[in-house]
Amino acid sequence: MKMSIEVKNIESILINLKNAEKGLTRVFKDGLKDEGVNMKLFAQAALVKAHHDALASKDTKKSYWNGILMDSIDSETVIDEPGKIEVVVGVNAEKYPKVADYAVPVEKGHKVGFKGFWKGYHYMEQTYAEFAPKIEKRMAGKLSTVIKAVTSYGTGWRNIATGQYAKALK
User: Fold this and answer.
1) Residue 166 near residue 156 (C-beta atoms within 8 A)
2) pLDDT tens, the chain, 170 aa long
3) What is the domain partition of the chain in residue ranges?
4) What's the pTM value of the predicted model, to 2 decimals?
5) Residue 83 phi/psi, 5° resolution?
6) Is the Cβ–Cβ distance between 160 and 24 less than 8 Å?
7) Are 67 and 87 in contact (CB under 8 A)?
8) Handedness of CA 98, 103, 104, 109 (dihedral sign)
9) Closest of 104, 97, 100 to residue 121, by C-alpha
């Protein structure tokens, strides 16, 4: 037994697939930028929480407010070109040079006097531990939401680059 399959007029399908690629790329890049902003906000909140936890601790009852450090946590898109994006989240010492000397000791901890050690707030470490395992799933969810877009009639695919619905094969 033999079977023959023929597809005609595929130009419109190829155009829609190319537009879908552009749209999905835009959604992915926008989603990654949003993830960076969310990581920044989470790190800032973790720093504030660590500060309040240190004040409430029976061990130290001491904390240092890091408002400038908190403000220096930034999310920046350093590369955004076709086929490539890079988002960096962390302390921006170029923008806030005052924090350059103490950002790492506040994160990791430092010696206090001859024998003491202050354990650090680990705000960036907490942020990475919270976001890294789930970022792939969140990005896939954003893309799948866009891919599933259908017309109000329940048929057809929407071109996510142009917002127009794909034409049916003739």
Assistant:
1) yes
2) 778 777 777 887 778 778 778 878 888 999 999 999 999 999 999 888 887 777 766 655 555 567 788 888 999 999 999 889 999 998 888 888 888 888 878 887 777 778 777 777 788 888 999 888 999 999 988 888 777 654 344 455 566 666 666 554 43
3) 11-147
4) 0.72
5) 80, 10
6) yes
7) no
8) positive
9) 104
Helices 11-56 and 123-147, packing angle to 10 deg:
150
Residue 166, Ramachandran bin (φ over 0: left; ψ between -120 and 50: alpha; else beta): beta
Which phi and psi (to 5°) does residue 48 adopt? -65, -45
Q: Where are the beta strands (DSSP E) in the chain?
A: 73-81, 84-91, 110-112, 116-118
Token reading at 161: 């680059």
Token representation of residue 137 = 């799933």
Tokens 């329940």 belong to residue: 154
Spatial CB neighbours of 13, under 8 Å, sequence gap ≥ 6: 166, 169
